[in-house]
Amino acid sequence: DGGITQSPKYLFRKEGQNVTLSCEQNLNHDAMYWYRQDPGQGLRLIYYSQIVNDFQKGDIAEGYSVSREKKESFPLTVTSAQKNPTAFYLCASSMRMRNQPQHFGDGTRLSIL
Amino acid sequence: SQQGEEDPQALSIQEGENATMNCSYKTSINNLQWYRQNSGRGLVHLILIRSNEREKHSGRLRVTLDTSKKSSSLLITASRAADTASYFCATDAGSSNTGKLIFGQGTTLQVKP
To answer: Which residues of B touch A40 (CB under 8 A)?
Structure first.
């Protein structure tokens, strides 16, 4: 079945540590997105990529980095510069054209040790 | 930045009743989408309505769009306990083919059996 896989489901970060969240899709979508969700809140866009080897900052990119070396994969690194990383992180993908829905993974919950 | 404001923030109804959620937005759009999120899971796309459409149906879901008032509503008829979830509206804010969406803060729906 086609879909988006995020791993791990739960992740713990120590002070000063970088951690990487995985996102893989087999939907053959060109566009991929990373969102952050805080409790009781909507989604805020961190980074997005419309094509391999290209990505753009979203509304809250500070303290995060991404890469897009393969069409299927869009990993997100939460760096030590992100001072409040505790949140639920969601990855999504879509076809790269207007009026398309986004397909979401089941998220990674990141907490601080 | 939050494009959508959803109302109410929380809604509790009995099984079999109808549930109505409202979304207002600020800028011009190409489309508005509604998503459902079960607790601890990713978002699931429900319905997309284009800016030149006024109403759309999908099973027990009815979505309306009033671009003059910059508002949309989602009606779930004959609700079931399984409809218990958070519901989010999202707009593309008129962005040209980036696929970027801006999400509202969501309405939490509880359907009591």
So the answer is: 105
